[in-house]
User: Fold these one by one.
Assistant:
Number 1:
Amino acid sequence: MSDDDLTALHLDQFLPHPPAKVWRALTEPDLLARWLMPGDFRLEVGHRYVMRAVPMPSTGFSGTVLAEVLAFEPERMLRLRWRDADPADDTDWTVTWTLEPEGTGTRLFLRHDGFDPDNPLQQRARRIMGGGWRSAVIRGLEDLLDSL
Amino acid sequence: MIAERTTEDQVFAALSSPVRREVLRLLREEGPRPVQALAGRFEMSRPSFSEHLRVLREAGLVTERKAGRQRLYQLEAVPLLDVQEWLTPFERFWREKLTGLRDLLDRLEDEEP
């Protein structure tokens, strides 16, 4: 998938902890509340729950997520559906965590799908930046920010 | 609020030009540069190049200072941070969360030796 795909976000992070421990942080409600958002998560396909985070006015995100467990493979993969609790918001995201052992630790991949490429905020940025704005500008910004 | 919005528009407008993005890239990679050295990298008249620098200055993306007989241009990162908030709010969201996850896992180590 290219960097110019505006419907998905990919990130990965190395964690110096084994997959079993990372899996706990992804699936135990007490631990989820400490790094992501509080909510009544249960590791069961079809389980629905609510999570509360900070609203993001610049995106229209209300901050309250209606989530559902779509699929999982213990210590390897967890896929969730996230919708905005605001009924006026037709957001429908899929958040997929993938865990891969790396040395004595874990590489955790995040894939956040379902962004609307017609979102006016993104359109505004695209109009201004022209083609390739994401790779050209954002990568540059990231390099810059990393170097600060 | 109006003033902030205006600044944001100026930053977006400044970034809309490939020439100006290239100036920012050069300043990022090479540090502060004299205006002559920057101008020498672009095939355009000096007044046209000065106009690009003016737009960057007014957006707060670069600052100019005198060093002897030279005028040095330097990148200013703060307006770029503001723009990044617009372009990649979810990337920022997740990066912050992942940092929190790493910290939590480090702490669990201490709690459960």
Number 2:
Amino acid sequence: MEFIACSSARGPDVAIEVLLPKLGLTMESGLIEEWLVSAGTLVQPGEPLMRLSTDKVEVDVEAEAEGLFHPAVAQGSELPPGALVGWLLAEGEAVPATSVAAPTPTAAPEAAEPVVAAEPGALTPPTQTGRQFVSPNARRVAREHGVDVTQLPGTGPGGRVITADVIDALEQLEVAAPAGVAQGPGVVSPLVRRDAVAAGVDLGSVPAGPGGKIRRADVTAAAARLGAPETGGPAQVIPLTGMRGVIASRMHASLQEMAQLTLGTDATMDAAVELRARLKEQWSAAGIAVPTITDFIVRAAALALVRHPRLNASVQEQSILVQSEINVGIAVALDEGLIVPVVKNADRLALSGIAAETKRLAAGARSNKLALPDLEGGTFTVSTLGSYGIDFFTPVITPGQVAILGVGRLRDSVRWDGATPVRTQVLTLSLTFDPRPVDGAPAADYLRAVVDQLQNPLTLLA
Amino acid sequence: MTKTPVKDDPVTDLPPEVLRDLHRRMVRIRLFEEEAGKLMEGGRMPGFLHLYVGQEAVAAGVMATLRPDDVITSTHRGHGHAVAKGADLRFMYAELFGKSTGYCKGRGGSMHINDLSIGMLGANGIVGGGIPHAVGAAYAAVYKGRDSVAVPFFGDGATNIGAFHESANLAAVMRLPVVFVCENNGYAEFTPQERHMLLKDVADRAAAYGMPSEIVDGMDAVAVYQAAGRLVERARAGEGPSFLEAKTYRYYDHQGVKGLRIPYRTQEEIDTWLERDAIAALEQRLAGADVAPADELAQVWTDTREEIAAAITYAENSPDPDPADLLENVYTV
Amino acid sequence: MREITYVKAFTESLMQLMAEDDDVVVIGEDVAHYGGVFHAFDGLLTTYGEKRVIDTPISEMGFIGMGVGAAARGLRPVCDLMFFDFIGVALDQLYNQAAKLKFMFGGDVSVPLTLTTAGGAGLSAGPQHSQSLEAWLAHVPGLKVALPSSPHDVKGLMVAAVRDDNPTVVVLNKRMLGTKGPVPEEIYEIPLGHANVMRSGTDVTIIAVGRMASEAMTAASRLAEAGIEAEVIDLRTVQPLDSTTILDSVRRTNRALVVHEAVTFGGIGAEISSQIQEEAFDYLDAPVIRVGAPFSPVPFSPVLERAYIPDSNRIADGVHRLLERSGA
């Protein structure tokens, strides 16, 4: 079972501080949804203290040490990683005098020079009490672009969500902003300008993106061309998890970003089904994870991607970035929505390895205990609607990828052996692809390759 | 009421038409005001009125010396001045009713009646507010080479306000053709004169500005006419401004007929002035001097009543202003 | 183009107006023989004579009221109120008479009166000789109020004001009298009620009144070095107020700062701010802030006065507050 531990600082005769953990590289703030223990409760290491949510995940955060728990901030506070949220006290120990009654904003701004005519508090909304403050213009722009403001961190005074935060979110989603966005064409936002200054990029040399606007991504690309080192890791970290709003906004964003075509074809699954039955007999007895039909398809898809790398890519402004790894995300339906855990290096895992991994991820997804690495880094997605009785559908590409394979239900069908009808089992594969990196013919080739593997399932054991 | 003995008087030195004209003006004012007072206190007219009843001789006497291009400014108690200057009674009543056909298109009411075509540069609701305007009008006349004069009317109370002093001094120093006419009715609103200044004669103030002055019986239309005539001619001849104090009295309250019904004047005092009523006095003189027979004088009353009745009908039947036009004339476009 | 001072541009406007229209006369204290305490009326007496340029006694109520009467009777008087602070002794003639005659007399009487005056602080003139009271006058229906911010604008706005048939107050700024700028030689008019966008920008709209327009431009240059592009609007008149230009700009930049020399509380910035939030609420990324003087009379001591009067530093600080972000 995964658990996230709070960082804590221990010193002699000093209360153990409970700090807000950093969940993932890009976490800017976390919302304390709920305190799971009441003040004064004795907790043991590993016991959950609070439910914390970010824009990506919701996790239970456990105590790292023993003590009487005393919260420092209110439920509903939104704080940056590392913020003091409480203490673990020894018996009889007093709550430290430096208790913070109210949470500090995301980052303490530099104290402004006192101005004789300063209007007190004009710009700062009241201390965060769980209510999110959003500027009217930010709301308007978010609404126009289908972005859910409630998911956004606010960098305005007092943590207010301002237009630049919405624009950042849009840029991170790699969505081309239409010309009607808050800043018009030919315009550079302060944020982008700040990026350019920090990266030593001359804005005049950066080609503008859609609508004549220079975005953060453009500056980053320009910096890369300067030889400035990129932070290591995968080409792009694209958030894949969804609370409802994020799913909705990303679907919308995806379809806005690119044209999407879907090809469908049937795969005859008799051989695969039979192979699976035999594996089940022998592997389960030996304690080896038994693959599901979906696992077969994941492996087939991954192996086919080796020979058709263009479908395992990401489209940038001026180029197609072919990914170095093949990480297949598998959409898992939840009560509240969709979650897409990722099988890393699916081309290099054996079928049994894939089986074990998907089992682990599915269990984690359902019990809401997935870690961030499980959700990041996908380069291709497989989406199954078979259990819902669907044959063919038009899955929507995950933003940042170029293809998604939809899997329909395994169903009885008939094939013709000469003039003789033969009962068979088939399922429909629906491949939606982005026509920018790949035309219809190569996409069809890929799909054919997947089908071939499935219809010759022993190749999947290689 | 005992009849005042008709003394030997210089009436016969004046053409009969002048006297009849004085009489007519006074009757028009009297009846206009009486009817207006009834309408307002009877609830048929909005707002409040400051009635001129009792002071008719001053307006009539002064106006009879002026030409249409001579400009007057008036006060909150300005109906008498407007009527005497020749205003159209229909448009006056219409304004009192707040109708769109009124002199101010319903925007001003009683205290802002005006008609530039007859030289009536408006009545003013601010005590002393119109006095500088008359000085300005006189300056414009001189500037344009016209020989018209300007006559601001004001009460004894107004001579205490800054605008009066500044205007008097300005007119004197600039030698403008202004005749300052003070209708001293003994009260500044509800405060008697002896409590708001030490002077008995307001005209004494004129000397402070180097201006000549005259004091006249404000209940004697002929006396007012003659005194005003002298001062107007002086101004018209370019000899500078002067000050005329007419001692007079208003029969009704500061505002309305019965007004606030708080007695601050004795009935005895009121009766004293009633006995000296200017219209009655003039009628006596006219009859006595055989200038106009009684029935002719009575006809003036009858004719005036008819005219007033028609004017009120006209006014009451006029349309109200349209709220859609509310912002009209805030600025000159 | 030749450059002349703010005060000379003012004098030139009157010279040319009095030449083109015989009905224009100048009335005020020390305007004729002395040429005005700020030398704003130099040369008018010798050119146009005593009938048209008149020295009055110290009687603001009297001579401004005289101006009202003269205007009603066909002249086009320019009455000079030596210091804006003196408006109190004459206010009735301005707001109860000049402003209302057209309306309450039913439209037949116009008052084409121009009231010129000098306002603003910075010369250690003390609390009763340094005020900016344009908000009082902008509040009166029937008046127009102009605050020129440059020599070019003084001449153009004066011409418009004198030619306008409404009572118009033109407020010169005492500290600008000696500033030089390009001014066309011929007579020209700047229409009242049209703001001047002095500088285009994308990040914030700075709306300025009077002398604060040049402070705003200074602030904008400094902000540009920090990568912030401010749009600077010089209102030119506070009545009529060019709301269209203001709102159009704020809808583009999403942030607004209003700056005026007058006390912040109840200043014209309050009206502008209110209009912006009412008409462009959904375009605001931050509250509208005002930079004005503190709630006290103008102090005499130069040290205090410097701390009192808004300047480019306070404007730039205000813009930084509007744009501040954390953690980005």
